Amino acid sequence: MELYNKDTFSEDILPVVIVDCTSEQFEMLYCSQGPELTNGLAQMESDLEYLCEGVEGRSSNPVAVLFDALLLPDGDFGVDCASPLIWRHEPERATPHLVLGKGPPGGAWHAMEGSMLTLSLANWMELPGLKLKDWMRDKRRNLRNDRATPTEIASYYQHYVTKMGLEKSFACGTTVTSVSRVSLESGCSVWKIQGLQKRANEVIEVPFSVYAENVVLATGTHDIPARLGVEGENLPFVCHSFWELEAAISSGRLDRASEPVLVVGAGLTAADAVLAAHHLNTPVYHAFRRPVSDPALIFNQLPKLLYPEYHKVHQMMSQQQQSLGETVVNLSNQPLSSPSDGTSQCTSYPGYLSFPKHNVASFRPDGKCVLEDEKGLQTVVQVSMALVLIGAHPNLSFLPEHGRPLALNSEEPISCRRNPLDVDPYTYECVKEPGMYAMGPLVGENFVRFLKGGALAIVCDVARKRSKKPQENSTISSLNIQLTNCTLEA
C-alpha cells in the first residue's frame, strides 16, 4: 500500500494505527470479523471486566486469560476442544485501521531459522477463522509433535491476511520515526505518525505522515539485543543474535575444527545456539547466572515429552558442569565421541561444558573470555565466537524518551519482563497516555495464545469510543474511500 505524503493536515483521520507490527500481533484487531458468544452477545459489546471476574490462567492479564479460555478450552491440558465462540463476518462493525510494519505480515517469524519447532503447540498459534491444521493439510504438510516450524507459521500468518481481506489495511516496508500528539483547530488532539516507506522496486524511502485517533504499539521485543556491559563486548568475535551464529555456519567460518563457541544465557535462544553448534560438532562452553535447578529456568517449566530437544540441553547443563576448583577441560582437544572406557571427564555429551552461576567478567582481543563465579573465582576460556543471548529490548525510539514515561517504572528502560508498559488491564490503554494502546510483549505477553485477548480488549475500547462519536461517520466514510483507492504493492 502506498501511503499518502501529507505535508499539511487533512480531514481524514484514521480511527486506529498499529505501529511497527513485527509479529503475530497484527492478526487480532477484529476489524472485519467479530467474535460472538453462543448466546448471541457480541464480545465487542460485553463488559469485559465483569466477565473476567474469577478467571485464572497462565497470564497476568485477565482479558487474555478470558479469551484464551473461550478460544482454547482446556488448552493447558493439550486437549483440542471445540470453542464456544462463533465467528461471523459483519462489515458494518469494521474499524478502519492501518497496520505499519517493516516487513511482511508475520514479522519476526520470517527471520527465524525455518527448521526449528515452535515452543507453543500448533493450535495455540492459530488465529480465529482459519484452523492451522486445516491450512497445513491443504499444503500437504503434517505437524511434528503437534508443533510447527517458524517458516510454516510465517506463511500461515501471511496467508491469513489475504484470506481475511485485510491486505488493504497493511502498509509493509514502513519504518515509524515519530509518534506525537498534535492539536486541531477544533481543539481536539490526534496522533501524528511519521516515518519512511520503501516501496516495491524502489531504492529510496519516501517520507509519510498519517493521523489517527488511536495508536496501538505492537513492536514486539526483538529489536535491540540486551548487552552485558562488560569490557571487550564490542570485539568482532562477540555477537548478540542467533542469526550471526547461523551466518558463521553457512559461510563456513564455523565448523567442527573451530575453537569452542561460548554461549551466554539460559533461555530458549541460548539453547537453540547450543543445539546448532553441537549438531555441527563445534565445541561449546555454556555460561549462565542461575543454578540448573532454579525453578525460574524455562527448561524446568517445559513438559519433557513435548520438548525433547530442550530437555536434552537441560541434561547437558546438568551433567556436564564445570566443577569448582577443577581445571577447565580444553574442548578443542577433546574427542567429539564418547570413549568406551569411560576415562574422559566429559563422557555423556562430548564437546560441551556448562558454567552454572557464572558471569562474564570481560572479553579479550585474543579471543579469551574471563568467566567469574559467585565467589569471585575466575576462569579463562579460549573461543572462536561468543554469543551473548540474554534477551532483547523493544525499540521505541519513535516515542519521547524511548517510551520510558509509559512504563511501570519511568526511571528504568522498558523491559518486557521486568518493566513493561503500564496499561489498564481491561482496555490495554496506556495509563499515562490516553488514546495509546499496547499489546504483546510490551505488556508482558510473549505467547501468541494470549496476544489475542489483548487485541480483543483494545478493539472493545475503540468501539466504545466510536459509538460515542456518531457525528464523525462522514469522516470515516471519506477515509474508507481513500484506503480503497490506495495502491497495494507486493
TrEMBL record:
GO MF annotation: an example: monooxygenase activity
GO CC, one annotated term: midbody
GO biological process, one term: cell differentiation
UniProt keyword annotations, A-Z: Differentiation, FAD, Flavoprotein, Growth regulation, Monooxygenase, NADP, Oxidoreductase, Phosphoprotein
Family: Belongs to the OKL38 family.
Job of this protein: Monooxygenase catalytic activity. Involved in regulation of cytokinesis; promotes RHOA activity, probably acting locally at the midbody in late cytokinesis. Monooxygenase activity is involved in stabilizing transient structures between daughter cells, termed intercellular bridges, before abscission. Regulates differentiation and proliferation through the regulation of cell death.
Cited PANTHER family: OXIDATIVE STRESS-INDUCED GROWTH INHIBITOR 1, PROTEIN CBG05349
Protein name: Oxidative stress-induced growth inhibitor 1
Organism lineage string: Eukaryota, Metazoa, Chordata, Craniata, Vertebrata
